[in-house]
Amino acid sequence: MRQAVNEAWENPEKENAVADLWEEIIPGVYSAQFFDLDRLAEFRKYLEATVNSEIPRRAPYGIQLNRYGVMLDPRSEGHLAAPNFQAFYNDIMDRYMRPIARLLLGTYGYDNQTFGFSIQYNPDKDKDLHAHTDASAATLNININLPDEEFTGSQVDFHDKYTRRVVQTTFEPGKAIIHRGNVPHATHPITSGQRNNLVVWLYGDRMQIPRGGASSYGSIDSSTSKVVTVDNITARERWSLSDGPKDTVAPF
pTM of the full predicted structure? Predict the structure, then answer.
């Protein structure tokens, strides 16, 4: 993933190599291995150190309270403001998530603002999440469990609104799912262990998101692996930084 993304930034015409790494679950939902497991272990040590340092932070709430999560984005009071983490967080959004969302989901124009939080599911508290959609143009959900941190249950259902098909997937260490915010999804109860994830959103100014269903988004033509977009956005535009200022609006 890192190599393909680096090459796409140097030459956006190579972006299809990035698309090829993502498996389509249903229209508007894709999965791929996102984190290198060795580097993930380093990242978890860093997170544990920040928690142990007792840096003030606020657990996320919105759809429901997640008692063990942390707000990540500067828009949110009580966010994890450690400078090294914020540099890492912005790199995920700017270098990876935004161009990948534009490539797979056609979110160009609705992705200059960011939001993020971490969550932890365990059998005692915060064990599931009912069916819902996100207030985002795109959501990137990344599992940060280490290989020896096994859990059972906690499968995620994605609902295809057009075929009414439900596809179930299970997170593995370092695995990411990127999806349109308007795709309904739900988390089954976790029955043992813990599941830890980072969840990050993209949306437009004043929380604008595409309206009107799938026609408002672009897509990947599965027969040719070529990008099809309604606004005919170029590869160079997809692989560009957002030039708009960050606002102060947070979903919760």
Answer: 0.91
Percent of the chain with pLDDT over 70: 89
C-beta of residue 128 within 8 angstroms of C-beta of residue 189: yes
CA–CA dist 189, 156 (Å, integer)? 10
**List of residues 6+ apart from 237 with CB closer than 8 A:** 102, 108
- The separation between CA 92 and the C-alpha centre of its own chain, rounded to angstroms, equals 9
Whats the size of the chain, residue-wise? Answer: 252
**DSSP-assigned letter for residue 187:** E
The C-alpha torsion from 179 through 181 and 185 to 188, rounded to 10°, is 80
Mean pLDDT of the chain: 88
Using alpha carbons only, give the angle 161, 162, 163 rounded to the nearest 5 degrees: 100
Structure tokens at 195: 């599941």
| Rounded-to-integer distance, Cα 138 and Cα 209, Å | 9
CB 64 within 8 A of CB 114: no
Q: Are 186 and 101 in contact (CB under 8 A)?
A: no
What is the three-class DSSP state of 142? strand
Cα angle for residues 158, 92, 235 (degrees, 5° grid): 85
65 by Cβ neighbours in 10 Å (0-12 / 13-18 / 19+) ranks as exposed
